[in-house]
Amino acid sequence: MEVPPSELFKFTIRQLLDSKKLSALVFFVVLVVVLLAGSFLPKHYTSSTTLKLQDEGVMQPLLRERAVVGGTKEWVQGAKQIVFSHEVLSKVVKKSEWEGADLSSDRVVARLQGKIRDNASIVSSGKSYIKFTYTDKNRKRAFEVVHNLANEFVINLLDEKRKKSQDAFEFIGTQVNTYKENLVISEENLKQFKRDNFDGTITGVLSRVSSLEQQIEAVDIELSGYQLKLQSLEGQVSKERKIKKGADENLEVNKRVALMNNELDQMRLSYHDSYPDVIALKGRIDELKRSLKPSQGLSFASHSHQNNRSGQDLLGQLRAEISKIKAEMAAMNVRKSKLEMLLAEQKEKSTRLHGAEAELAELTRDYNVNKNIYQDLLMRRENARVSMNIELEEKGASFQIVQPAVIPLIPKEPPFWMFFLAAPFAGLLVPILLAFAIIFLDQKIRHPMAIREFVDVPVLQTIPHWQGDGEQVAARRDVLTVIALLIISASVYTAVGYYSFFKSGIWATL
Amino acid sequence: MSGNGDIHILNKRLAQTPSVQMRDLSLSGKNIAQMAEVAEFSQAEKDRKKIIYPEMKNSRLVNSFRDLRNNLLEKSKGQNTTIMVTSMVEGSGGSFVAANLAAAFAFDGSKTSLLVDANLSNSSLENYFGTNYGVGITDFLEDKEMKIEEVIYSSGVKRLRLIPAGKHSEYASEYLSSERISVFVNKLKRRYSDRYIIFDAPPLSDPASAKQVMHLCDLIVVIAPYGSVTGDEVATAVAGIPKEKLAGVVINNEPVIRKSL
Question: What is the pTM of this model?
Answer without folding.
Answer: 0.52
